[in-house]
Amino acid sequence: MAHYRASESKREQFRRYLEKAGVLDSLTNVLVALYEEPEKPNNALDFLKQHLGVIGPETADVETLRAEVAELRQKYDTVMEENKELRAKLLQYETSQEDGRTE
Q1: How far is CA 93 from the centre of its chain?
Q2: Sign, Cα dihedral of 17, 19, 22, 25
Q3: Residue 40: is it exposed, middle or buried by C-beta count within 10 angstroms (0-12/13-18/19+)?
Q4: DSSP reduced 3-state for 28
Q5: Rounded CA gap, 5 and 7, in Å?
Q6: How far is it, in rounded angstroms, from Cα 41 to Cα 58?
């Protein structure tokens, strides 16, 4: 009988821990959202993971962001090359200005 009470006490401690950490509220909210879902998902576990934030962003979102990053890198390279050319022209211009003053 003492063994039964000891395990009951551990369960109660664990329940309080989960409640204090907000785990019970989060699980309750997700389960309520699943319950209220008009069309139940084929995979309830994926629904739980998605609503608990376990699953990362959608694959389409990731692909869109990757394409955007590639485009921005290309623009960056173009701008850096243009900057390099303009600096060279400016240096040439400044050099020719200095040569004109000394003569």
Answers
A1: 47
A2: positive
A3: exposed
A4: helix
A5: 5
A6: 16
Report percent pLDDT > 70 for the chain.
86
Give residue limits of the domains in the chain: 1-56, 57-103
Average pLDDT over residues 5-14: 83
Measured distance CA(34)–CA(49) in Å, rounded: 11
Residue 22: alpha-carbon gap to chain centroid: 22
Angle at 37 between CA 34 and CA 42, to 5 degrees: 75
One-letter amino acid identity for 9? S
Taking every pair of C-alpha atoms in the chain, what is the biggest distance, in angstroms? 109
Nearest one of 26, 77, 94 to 54, comparing CA atoms: 26
Residue among 15, 25, 21, 14 at smallest CA distance from 52: 25
Q: Per-residue confidence at 57, pLDDT binned at 50, 70, 90?
A: low
| Distance of alpha carbon 21 from alpha carbon 30, whole angstroms | 16
Contact 60, 68 (CB under 8 A): no
